Amino acid sequence: MGVRRFEEIQAYTGMSSHLLAKRLKRMEEEGLLERKLYSTGPPRYEYLPTRKGKELDAVSLTLRAWMLRWGVYELGADPAFLIVDKKGKPVDGTWQIPQGRTPFTFNDVKTTISPAFAAEREARRTAYFESKRRAKAARTEH
Q1: pTM of this prediction?
Q2: What residues does 110 pair with on adjacent strands?
Q3: Per-residue pLDDT tens listing for the chain (142 residues)
Q4: 27 with 33: CB under 8 angstroms?
């Protein structure tokens, strides 16, 4: 989804900074993510999937397919992500990962966020950064 920086991940997930740091550290230790410095003052990192981490894309896609088949959606509602394969075929609850020499990753498909989910994500992000701004302003007032 293009979210790689700590604050952005926290904004979208709503996780506490302690819990998120703990989980990212564990994923890094397991070789699923690597940290890359993007700013030196203060040091800031982004988190990128490793080859090992990208191989979990197939698991995510399988869970998504299951949810599309068995999840409860409002009538006519689109899934949060609209995905099409390289042949232009929609990746729905019946789609199967093509057999090949290399493991499937989301690089093999085109993903777009539905308008409803994009709005929900933006509202979550805005609320997160607004709460951080208010907390900072409260600290400087005292």
Answers
A1: 0.76
A2: 84
A3: 778 999 999 998 889 999 999 999 999 999 999 999 999 989 999 999 999 999 999 899 889 888 888 887 776 677 888 899 888 888 888 888 878 778 888 888 899 988 888 898 899 989 988 988 898 888 888 6
A4: yes
What domains appear along the chain, each with residue ranges and CATH number? Answer: 1-53 (1.10.10.10), 55-142 (no CATH)
Within 13 Å, how many C-alpha atoms sit on residue 97's CB side? 21
DSSP the chain: ----BHHHHHHHH---HHHHHHHHHHHHHTTSEEEEEEEETTEEEEEEE-HHHHTTHHHHHHHHHHHHHHS---TTPPPSEEEEETTS-B--TT--PPP-SS---GGGEEEEE-HHHHHHHHHHHHHHHHHHHHHHHHHHH-
Taking alpha carbons only, the member of 65, 68, 62, 57 closest to residue 109 is 57
